[in-house]
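2024-03-11 09:14:02 INFO queue: dequeued item Uroporphyrinogen decarboxylase (URO-D), len=455
2024-03-11 09:14:02 INFO validating residues
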Amino acid sequence: MQDIKKLQKEREQLFKDLFDGKIPKRVPIHTSLPLEFCIQYAGLPLAETQWTLEGVEEALDKACQITSSDYYPIGFSRYPAHLQILGSRAFVMGSSGFIQHPGVAGMEAIEYDELIKNPYDCIMEKVLPRLYPELDTDPITRSLVMAKAFKAFFDYVETYEKIDAKLIEKYGFHIVPKESIGSVTTPFDFLTDFLRGFKGIAMDVKRNPEKVIEACEAVLPTQIKRGIPPVPSRYGYTFLPLHMGTYLRDSDFEKLYWPTFSKMVNTLAQAGQPCLIFCEHNWMRYLDYLYELPENTRFYFEFGDPKLAKEKLGKKHIISGFYPLTYLRTATKQQCIDKAKELLDILAPGGKYYFTFDKSPVTLDSVNVENYTAVLQYVAKNGKYDYPGGTTTLESKQKDKLLQAKANGLKSKYYKTWDEYKEIHPRISPKLESAIATKLQSYEEMVFKMIFMLT
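2024-03-11 09:14:37 INFO prediction written
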């Protein structure tokens, strides 16, 4: 047990040094194995296990044994029960047992003005009933459906949190500060994913770009609120996958995508919360834009030129990714190790780098597990720095232009702050107000969290 605690402290120090602007003892490793991969690796039935959770702890435990990741390696998962209760069209479990997004749209082009007027109201009244038809019913039935879905959702959350905590302690993985992780999308990607869909947003960009701009600004406060966790920390992060940027022309990216994207990242940074940005596809043509984001923003690249990214971003920001996951299936073990060495030689010098693959292996047949393990073992052994402890911060402390945080900019009849609630219920005892406020607001935030997990 003492050795595990020592390992955990060493791993924690690697990430602290990385995020504090110092060169760590070695390159930290942060990889992720999705739930579906873990269940398949354990030889369990995929769909049934996601529903019953029977054997899931053993499956996740087994997956932890094949990785040398310093960070807890079990990735994000979707839960089936609340989706079934809601009659989900947005996330559907296929016959193979994978829960996928089939590309539906919850908002019509003629409804932009309603979204712009009040995004949360529009989502609650128009979008959710379309994406989740069991909510498209009378008020009483809708309330019962939502109550059951809420209970089912957080039952799964609680179960997985207990398993995660047990495995983190068992294997000594790095512990991120409690309640310091968030997840969000850019306003433009939020419009695309479930409101207008890929085809819809492509038409809107051509036919009505001004409405797209207004809508991005309108939903920005909700995205900021989503992105700031209860306890912001430089050692935590808000995960931000970038979906649509590379599909846009440069001029459309500059007008439609970048303004609210940069405002959001800057505002989160001002609140003390860094972003971990997954640059899906190839973002090399936008590196000059990415450079302008707050120092020590974390970039996780799928495709592109690692040398160019290091040259453009490596002195100001933290870089990861670029290792092609396909290598682990198609190449020999030595070729896989040689690729890891190549990326370490390019990206590790000077610090501001941690190792991960360009994506996570969703299916068991997408990688050779032996190669996966060998690559991570190589990085853990050979990613050491000769002179750890040196500073990696910019010599001339550039002060990024940050915006006033608007984390509480959400206004809706379906969301109440404590002050708004107290106006309606003025007889609450002053002696109990602090305890009641904390408890009731926590439930308000839980509902908000679930609503945006659905959209």
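2024-03-11 09:14:37 INFO annotate: The radius of gyration is 23 Å.
2024-03-11 09:14:38 INFO item closed
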